[in-house]
Amino acid sequence: MENEKKWLNVHDVMAITGLSVAAAYKLMREVNAVQKADGKLTVTGKVSKKRFLEMIE
Length: 57
What we know:
3 helices
């Protein structure tokens, strides 16, 4: 099994985007809202790495 993260936390999002803590959490909420609308699992304080990377491209 791969040892790669499937979920990102706020620090990961901040490192990838260069955003502040507040802006990173806002972005994560937006990604999770789309994920939830698609009927997918969401975790508060985390974001799906796959969905996140798709949405920021």
